[in-house]
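Can you give me the bound-state structure? Components:
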Amino acid sequence: MRIRTMIAGALLFAATGCVEAQEFGKQVSANLLAATGVVSHEQASSLIDATVKISEAVQELTPEQEHYIGRTVGATILQAYPMHEAQPATHYLNLLGQTLVKVSGATETFSGYHFVVLDTPEINAFAAPGGFVFVTRGMLRLCDSEEMVAAVLAHEIAHVELKHGLQAIKTSRLTSATALLAVEGAKSAGSPEFRQLTSLFGESIQDAVTTLVDKGYSRSTELEADRTAVKILERSGYAAAPLLTLLEAMERTNQEQGGFAFLKTHPAPADRLAELRAGQPDMPGLVPSPDSRRKRFTAALGNV
Amino acid sequence: MRYRIMLLALLVVLAPVDLRAERIAVREGVLRQSPSPFGAIKKKIPYDTAVTVEKKQDGWFFITAPASGWLHGSAVSESKQSLRMAPGKASRAGAVADNEVALAGKGFDKNVEAAYRKEHGQLRYDLMDRVEKITVPEAEVKKFSEAGGTGRAR
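Here's the bound-state model for the whole set.
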């Protein structure tokens, strides 16, 4: 019982407080969890990481709320970029996406994952909360194999799994919204509380869209998504090497054509490559795409 | 040795607490016969339904109520209260009529979306409605996965 209290205390400690205290708390929590023998020290650390990284305010959002935030973020993206609705590309992207989703940590989301092609030569991709993934034709043209497209999608699925879109929202907006829900009036449309809730919703959408489309995530957030993408790719059987190929292609295009849109919101591909290689020096090399994949890739995306 | 026995006893005490995940966290939770991505589908369970988790295995939860079968862990919320109510409101649920409970304190929901949409007519919710309908049958995903030799997602 005492150990249990200590574990709970240490977890709480890890989830709150200043950075140094968090680090110390994480260590203590990991040691305690590992000491119980339920999990190895490594597993314990990753469990604690999960509790630290996702803020309490984000954790309090229900899956349904995440879905409605994602829908409006998506509606905003689709205002800025036209949707490419040609069937072969969209259908293929969704088959490939679902194959990867099946082995991700967030296989199921409120309304499931939906993969959309944006009709623009710009090289970019976005993931809205809840599993709405947008990939531009420019990005698809940059990919010369199914494996590279898989790498793009795995990175975006990682953003969904890690709830990065929600974490871009200022905590104060979410805590204010939660506080409002305790007020009876907030549920009746037209009341001042409901109007306040709606404006907090709008501000939250702005936070998420600004980060996704204009400002970009922090370097560490992108690297976290890359690392999770590697896990998804390895589990799926696609292997992680194509993510490196993709980053190399982006780096090359950047050097040839200069400052494309993706760089506005992402760290330099060369930096991401260096981080991935440093983190996993023994990553298996690229293997040629099997015929079955090459044929369907060309049929679906050959003319995208 | 005695320490180990104590820890074992502690685990027994902790186990029921750890394994009490409570609610379906997705619009339709897919209950499968086996803990695998393409396991045969037994049933779909709606959002916020209370479930009894008996055991967990590699990210999958075996539930015994309202039906028995396997759910992916991401389809289950650890929350011990309804996902349709604001935090702290659960204890008052009994005092409110059923339809009010369903409406109360959902936060950012379809009503908030509707109000926001009215003020932002240029946003492409019409396209998002279509995006939500983009789905591929599971059998086709399985075929795609097998044909491409991405074998582990069985």
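A couple of observations. Residues 5-52 of chain A have pLDDT under 50 and may be disordered. Chain A has 16 helices and four strands.
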